Amino acid sequence: MIQVKEFLDTDASYAETRANQFLAELKDEQIVNVCYGSILKSSPSGVGFQRSAILVVYKSGESNPK
Prior knowledge:
By secondary structure, the protein is an alpha+beta fold. Helices cover 15% and strands 47% of the residues. Strand 2 and strand 3 (48-59) form a beta hairpin. This is Sporulation protein Cse60. It comes from Paenibacillus qinlingensis.
Protein backbone atom coordinates (compact mmCIF):
# COMPACT_ATOMS: atom_id res chain seq x y z
CA MET A 1 0.00 0.00 0.00
CA ILE A 2 1.31 3.46 -0.87
CA GLN A 3 1.01 5.94 1.99
CA VAL A 4 2.11 9.50 2.77
CA LYS A 5 3.42 11.10 5.93
CA GLU A 6 3.71 14.85 6.35
CA PHE A 7 6.21 16.66 8.56
CA LEU A 8 5.79 20.36 9.37
CA ASP A 9 8.04 22.74 11.26
CA THR A 10 6.60 24.05 14.51
CA ASP A 11 7.98 26.37 17.15
CA ALA A 12 9.12 23.32 19.12
CA SER A 13 10.45 20.96 16.45
CA TYR A 14 11.93 20.90 12.99
CA ALA A 15 10.45 18.88 10.14
CA GLU A 16 13.89 17.77 8.97
CA THR A 17 14.75 16.02 12.23
CA ARG A 18 11.44 14.19 12.44
CA ALA A 19 11.47 13.24 8.74
CA ASN A 20 15.00 11.84 9.00
CA GLN A 21 14.01 9.78 12.05
CA PHE A 22 11.04 8.36 10.13
CA LEU A 23 13.12 7.64 7.01
CA ALA A 24 15.72 5.80 9.10
CA GLU A 25 12.99 3.31 10.07
CA LEU A 26 12.18 2.51 6.41
CA LYS A 27 14.04 0.25 4.01
CA ASP A 28 15.40 2.00 0.92
CA GLU A 29 13.02 0.12 -1.36
CA GLN A 30 10.02 1.42 0.61
CA ILE A 31 10.73 5.06 -0.25
CA VAL A 32 8.81 6.26 -3.31
CA ASN A 33 9.42 10.02 -3.13
CA VAL A 34 10.33 12.82 -0.74
CA CYS A 35 8.97 16.32 -1.42
CA TYR A 36 10.10 19.50 0.30
CA GLY A 37 8.59 22.96 0.49
CA SER A 38 9.46 26.12 2.34
CA ILE A 39 7.49 29.27 3.18
CA LEU A 40 8.23 32.49 5.03
CA LYS A 41 5.81 33.08 7.91
CA SER A 42 5.56 36.60 9.33
CA SER A 43 4.76 37.32 12.95
CA PRO A 44 2.57 40.29 13.94
CA SER A 45 5.74 42.23 14.78
CA GLY A 46 6.96 41.75 11.20
CA VAL A 47 9.70 39.25 11.97
CA GLY A 48 9.90 36.49 9.38
CA PHE A 49 10.37 32.80 10.14
CA GLN A 50 11.10 30.09 7.60
CA ARG A 51 8.83 27.07 7.85
CA SER A 52 9.40 23.77 6.10
CA ALA A 53 7.06 21.02 4.99
CA ILE A 54 8.29 17.56 4.01
CA LEU A 55 6.08 14.91 2.46
CA VAL A 56 7.31 11.32 2.41
CA VAL A 57 5.60 8.92 0.00
CA TYR A 58 6.38 5.34 0.93
CA LYS A 59 5.28 1.74 0.59
CA SER A 60 3.97 0.19 3.78
CA GLY A 61 3.95 -3.50 4.51
CA GLU A 62 0.18 -3.45 4.81
CA SER A 63 -2.06 -4.50 1.97
CA ASN A 64 -5.68 -3.60 1.54
CA PRO A 65 -7.30 -6.12 -0.81
CA LYS A 66 -10.65 -5.07 -2.21
